[in-house]
Specification:
The chain is an alpha/beta fold. It has a single domain, classed as Aldolase class I (TIM Barrel), CATH 3.20.20.70. It contains eleven helices and eight strands. Strands 1-8-7-6-5-4-3-2 form an eight-stranded parallel sheet. It is globular and about 50 Å long.
Amino acid sequence: MLRGILPVLPTPFTADGSIDQPAMERIVDFALASGVDGVVFPGFASEVDELTAKERADLLGLVVERVNGQVPIIAGASAPSAEEAIAHTKEALSNGIRTVMIQAPKSVGVSVEAVAAFYRTVAQAVPEIEIVLQNAPAPRGSDLKPDTILAIVRDNPSITYVKEETLPAGPAITAILKDKPPHLKGVIGGGGARYIIDEYRRGACGAMPAVEIADVHVAMDRAFRSGDITKARDLYMRTLPLLVIQANFRMAFTKYVLSKRGILTNHVSRAKLPPMDDADISEIDAWLNSVSHLLGNGSAALAGAAE
């Protein structure tokens, strides 16, 4: 069963904007050294819309090779059409990945019939896979209501997880888990782990944040699962300011923090993101310094492995 911290891996670029494969290897190594319970690639946080089909396929293969079976991999397979989603799903399957995360395209609409038909088409074309139904908020997602999700899931045994990241996600997680069919294994939180304690208290089986503080998120997850809610809340409060900033700058923030931690050499992004000015950088550095004693588990383990 998928559970725990399942970060979405970013795509690193060189200064000229091309794919930085050695840096991608370091990101995977950092995630593994941090003790994550699985990884997700590609996703929105991977700048998936900015990747060519070849880049996407090559990077997925690199992630699979680097992970080498140590943790589960969830492959992003969202696309503007069912045909493209099927193609991405088959690409994942060819890499030995049997769990894909798919958000129904907004062009499908939000009716039970239309969204169910989309997922049914994918499931019938690739019956070997399990689907994580991604329910993202507008404008990127369709903001599906819990009753709509439950109706879709009940008629599609291939959908074994829901990633719920509408706002507020908490009540939706509660509603889905209350009436979930037996084949739905769990609900995974999104929203960059900005609401992780609430999501866990409501029964979420895991979270899919970005990767830059994966070691702290793992410590938070382990504390919560061991019953040390006080420690989990303390870690949450200490890192929440960083996650609030990350909500504004997204992948650029993730890459900046990874560069500060010695994993990346730049924070180049292809996606059009708000620029971080000197004041932003100063504030990020201040908050990083305030939690510096919590950071380093993943970085230190990675450095040790390189020696």
